[in-house]
Design goal:
The complex is a heterodimer of chains A (254) and B (311). Chain A is of the alpha/beta class and 254 residues long. Chain A has helices at 42-49, 72-78, 95-101, 111-116, 119-139, 154-166, 184-199, 211-217, 235-240, 242-253; strands at residues 2-13, 16-27, 31-35, 57-62, 65-66, 80-82, 172-176, 203-207, 220-225, 228-233. With 311 residues, chain B is an all-alpha fold. A two-stranded antiparallel sheet of chain B has the order 1-4. A two-stranded antiparallel sheet of chain B has the order 2-3. The A-B interface holds A 50, 52, 71-73, 76-77, 81-82, 84, 88-94, 96-97, 100-102, 104-105, 107, 109-111, 113-117, 121, 124-126, 128-130, 133, 145-146, 164-165, 168 and B 170, 173-174, 177-182, 184-185, 188-189, 191-200, 206, 210, 302-303, 305-307, 310-311.
């Protein structure tokens, strides 16, 4: 049973067909990669899944529910968390607060609870800090928690984004070029981290340009070109696929 | 520790100040207090959420006129009208903010300027025959509290500043809660806030409604303090002053906003004899501030979390 099921997904931007009749499944507990040359429509697919865009056609079924036209915050609370291609942390807020923000959708306190602080609100705040600390530790971010997140190194900012996404206790985490701007050492640790996320039972869907990372970590790969799905399968199969080599690997790797 | 004692000492001296200040200066402090609460209520919208809202006087006006109309027509005691004024202002804010909540930056700014002007013009034109036109409404009664009629500047000093103290206490708690953080997420990055599960339209709307609720309550205090209100107290220029208090004092900072009220409302009183020149200096000071310290005089302090207790 697929956790996420995309069916005939299509999105136009004016005259451009950014995503053209794309269908694929993401099975529960797997690590799936979405690859393709620049402008292939990978990030658009992510933005369709997370509700930033509304598809012109097609269905997105997550855990038995259709996500089309649902607002982003609802999709997050249903269990899909994401990171961004260009890092989007809350720059002026502390590392801890950034990590806590992921847990927002699991909390209940509103303005009255905030003003009058009943006991359950204090417990909830405490829980938010606990979750944030747990996820920061999980991604291996060992820095001063009170510093502003903009002061972190690039690689650490990426890790913080992942911690923030994990704090929302998702079923599916969507990583948009997680290795962007990371050095070799950091990328190796990232591969380890992605496997650890999966081992916790969280399904991973990722876009990545770093081919070695994709081939290394993904169990199933979907290849997009010009908005169309041109191939899918295990890394070995995709690597051998002629269309893929033509569209992407041939130009990029050799 | 020393700093804490110093702050308490200043607060104590401040709360005793009506004993040694004359009525004029006590009234100046009252005005500062009123502006401070208004600016703090705007701070939710402008400082915490980062929404450029320059029409806050409209909500203040709705609160003040609610009190004035219900008190003069139906003789409902002023204190009973405090929550009611807040609620009407909040409902008004909900209705006008709902369609414009998705606007950003300068677009929102223009619309909010429109709102405050529409409200002022509606009041001048004696809308529904209730607002008394440009003469306004007079004969508003004073608040009665346990048999005491609050009427002298000294009475109002305690009335206003205790109201401010309670507001600050609640606002401070709110800032350090899920709600306060969510507003900051929106200010920092709307897309990321939405992507971490914050319903940004809802939170922006709550910020407007909450800010308007408080501005409406201050409208009640203002109406009973002046006993006469007219549209000229709720102009666009008033909104600009609240806006400047928040920006100058420090967006999102409670102490900063209070300090900003002292500077923008208190200082011009000190230099009253220089009449025209003081506005020039005021403008110049604002420009210099924006160049050298755009975050305001006292930017909000980082929130503190009890992390050690958990480890």
């Amino acid at each position: 049973m697929a956790l996420l099921h995309l069916k005939n997904l299509t999105k136009y931007f004016g005259g451009l067909t950014a995503v053209d009749n794309v269908s694929f499944d993401v099975n529960e507990g797997s690590i799936v990669g979405l690859i393709g040359p620049n402008g292939a429509g990978k990030t658009t697919v992510f933005n369709l899944i997370t509700g930033h865009y509304v598809p012109d056609q097609g269905e997105i079924i997550f855990n038995g529910q259709n996500l089309v036209k649902k607002p982003t915050h609802i999709i997050v609370s249903l269990g899909i968390a994401r990171t961004f291609q260009t890092i989007r942390l809350f720059k002026e807020l502390s590392v801890l607060e950034n990590a806590m923000s992921g847990y927002h959708c699991r909390m209940k306190a509103g303005i009255f609870a905030g003003m009058f602080k009943p006991r359950w609100q204090k417990r909830e705040e405490r829980q938010a800090i606990e979750i944030a600390l747990k996820e920061l530790k999980f991604v291996g971010l060992d820095v001063d928690l009170n510093q502003k997140s903009k002061n972190l190194s690039y690689g650490n900012q990426r890790l913080l984004e992942i911690a923030r996404a994990l704090a929302s206790s998702p079923k599916l985490i969507i990583l948009d070029e997680p290795a962007g701007g990371m050095n070799d050492q950091e990328t190796r640790e990232l591969v380890e981290l992605i496997r650890n996320i999966r081992d916790r039972g969280i399904t991973v869907l990722l876009i990545e340009h770093d081919m070695s990372l994709v081939m290394d970590v993904c169990e199933y790969i979907v290849v997009l070109d010009n908005g169309k799905k041109i191939a899918h399968g295990a890394p070995e199969e995709v690597r051998e696929n002629k269309k893929v080599i033509e569209a992407y690997l041939g130009l990029d790797e050799e | 520790m020393n700093r804490k004692y110093l702050i308490w000492a200043i607060c104590l001296i401040f709360f005793l100040s009506p004993l040694f200040l004359n009525a004029y200066w006590v009234d100046v402090l009252n005005n500062i207090g009123i502006y401070a609460i208004l600016a703090l209520s705007l701070n939710f919208i402008l400082g915490d959420t980062g929404l450029f809202h320059m029409g806050h006087a409209a909500f203040f006006a709705v609160g003040a006129y609610t009190t004035a109309i219900l008190n003069t027509m139906y003789h409902i005691p002023i204190l009973f009208l405090i929550p009611f004024s807040g609620i009407t202002a909040a409902i008004f804010a909900y209705l006008v903010a709902r369609p414009i909540i998705h606007l950003r930056g300068d677009y929102l700014l223009i619309v909010t300027i429109g709102i405050v002007e529409i409200v002022r013009i509606a009041l001048v034109n004696n809308i529904f025959g209730l607002t008394g036109g440009s003469n306004g409404i007079f004969g508003i009664s004073r608040p009665h509290l346990f048999g005491l009629i609050i009427r002298r500047p000294t009475h109002f000093f305690y009335y206003i500043w205790i109201f401010l103290a309670v507001s600050v206490f609640l606002f401070h708690r709110l800032r350090n809660s899920r709600f306060g953080r969510a507003l900051n997420y929106i200010k920092e990055d709307e897309v990321a806030a939405e992507g971490t599960g914050v319903d940004i339209a809802k939170y922006k709307l709550i910020a407007f409604v909450l800010g308007a609720f408080w501005a409406g309550m201050v409208g009640n205090i203002y109406a009973s303090k002046m006993t006469i209100i007219s549209p000229e107290s709720f102009t666009f220029w008033e909104s600009v002053i609240y806006f400047c208090i928040v920006i100058l004092g420090g967006s999102g900072s409670i102490t900063g906003v209070i300090l900003g009220s002292f500077l923008l409302i208190g200082l011009p009183e000190l230099f009253r004899e220089f009449a025209q020149a003081r506005m020039l200096v005021f403008g110049l000071a604002m420009i210099i501030m924006m160049i050298f310290r755009p975050q305001g005089i006292l930017p909000p302090p980082p929130r503190k979390y009890n992390v050690d207790q958990i480890n």
